Amino acid sequence: MKRLTEFGLTEFDDLADPTFSQAVIDWQRVHGRHSLPWQNTRDAYRVWLSEIMLQQTQVAAVLGYYARFLERFPTVHDLASAPIEDVMAHWSGLGYYTRARNLHACAVRVVNEYGGEFPADPALLADLPGIGRSTAAAITAFSNGTRAAILDGNVKRVFARVFGVEGYPGEKRIEDALWRRADALLPEESMEAYTQGLMDLGATLCTRSKPDCPRCPLQARCVAYATGRTEELPVRKPKKTTPEKRADMLVVLHDGHVLLEQRPASGIWGGLLSLPEVDGHVGIETARDGGIALAAAVQAFGEVEEVQALLPLVHVFTHYKLHMAPHKVLLAARAVTPERHVWVRLDGIEDAALPAPVKKLLIDLARPSLFA
Ligand code: ADE
Ligand code: SF4
C-alpha cells in the first residue's frame, strides 16, 4: 500500500505490504493461542497486568501468578491502595522485581492521574512506569484494537529472519529500521489477531533455535529460510573488540647474556624483570634497517653491532591484546649497565622472574641456530 504525503512517497510506504499482516492474521485465527486467561477481555487492567508479567517470562510461568494476583488485586484501585510489601509477596518467584515496583507505581498513577482508567493513547501509556513503546502498543491493541506496532524480542527475531535484516537488532540504527517496518506492516483492522499472531509465531514457530519453518505462514517470503540462514539471523550481539597495543621490545645481547629491566611496581607485569621497551611506535620498516628511534634507544646500552627485527608475537590479556615486536640488538661492547637493568645469562633464562610470554619469546630465541 502506498500513501502520498506532501513530501511524496515516504520510506514508510516502500515497506508496506498488506499480504504480510493477512498471512499472520489468517494463521493466528487457525493456529494461534485463543484461550489464555488474559485473552477475550478488553479490560485494560487485566491486559496490562498480563503484558508486564509476560515481559522476560514465558506463558507457562505466568499463568499461576496471574490468577493469584487478580484474586488478591481484582482492580487497579485494589492494587494502587495495597502496601508494596503485599504486591512484592504476590510477585515473589516471578523474577525481575523492578517490574513489581513499577507495577505498583503505575497503578498509583493510573488512579491519581487518570481516575483509574488506563489511557487509550499508546504514547501516554508509554509514559507510565514499566511500560515501554512495545508494551504500550500491545495493551492498546488488545484492549482497544488500536493500530500500534509491537516490537519485542520475539517480533524482532521474526522480522530479522523474514526480511533478512543484517545487523544486530540491539543496535539503535537497526532497531529504528525494525520499528519502521513494524509500523509500515500494521493491518487496517484485526489488530488483536495480528498482534497476538506475531507473538504466537515468535513463541511457537519462529523460535530462537530450530524454528519450525515447514509450518510457518511466512515461509514463502522468508529471506532466512530461502537462504538457509535461520541459525545466523538475527545477528548476534557483536563481541566487544579488545583494544590492541604494541610494545617494541629490545633483545639486547652480549656475550651469552640478555639485558633485562625491572618493571615499575604498579601496572602490567609489576615488579617483574622484562625486556626493555622502546617508547612510542617503532615502525617495523625503521627497525629492520636499524632505524633512528631504535638506534637512539639502544645506544645507551653499548656499542651496537647489528639490529634485526624479529617476528612479532601476540599475547592476549583479559582486557587487551598485546603485539610484542622484538628487535634483536647485538652489542660489540657493553656500556655501564643502566639503573634497574641486569644482564642475565641466556642459558639460565628458565629460572628468571619473567612474564610468561616474554620468557617464552626468549626461550624460543635461545635455540642455538639463532645465536650461532
Ligand atoms: N507475550 C507477551 N504478550 C503475550 C501475550 N499476550 N500472549 C502470549 N505471549 C505473550
Ligand atoms: Fe521464522 Fe522459519 Fe517462518 Fe522464517 S520461515 S519466519 S525462520 S519460522
Walk me through the structure.
The chain contains 16 helices and ten strands. By secondary structure, it is an alpha+beta fold. It folds into two domains: about 20-225, Hypothetical protein, domain 2 (Endonuclease III, domain 1, Orthogonal Bundle), CATH 1.10.340.30; about 245-365, Alpha-Beta Complex (Nucleoside Triphosphate Pyrophosphohydrolase). Strands 3, 4, 5, 6, 7, 8, 9 and 10 form an eight-stranded mixed beta sheet that branches. The chain has a two-stranded antiparallel ribbon with strand order 1-2. Helix 2 packs across helix 12 and helix 3 crosses helix 4 (about 60-70). Mean pLDDT is about 90; it is low at about 5-10 and about 280-290. Iron/sulfur cluster binds near residues 222 and 230.
Name of the CATH first level of the largest domain: Mainly Alpha
Q: Provide the CATH superfamily of the largest domain.
A: Hypothetical protein, domain 2
Percent helix range: 40-55%
Number of strands: 10
Tell me the structural class: alpha+beta
Number of domains: 2
CATH topology type of the largest domain: Endonuclease III, domain 1
Radius of gyration: 33 Å
Question: What is the global morphology?
Answer: elongated
What profile does the largest beta sheet have? 8 strands, mixed
Strand content: 15-25%
Name the ligand types. Answer: adenine, iron/sulfur cluster
Unreliable spans are: 4-9, 282-290
The string of secondary-structure elements, in order, is EEHHHHHHHHHHHHHEEEEHHEEEEH
- Which whole number gives the mean pLDDT? 90
Distance between the termini: 79 Å
Number of helical runs? 16
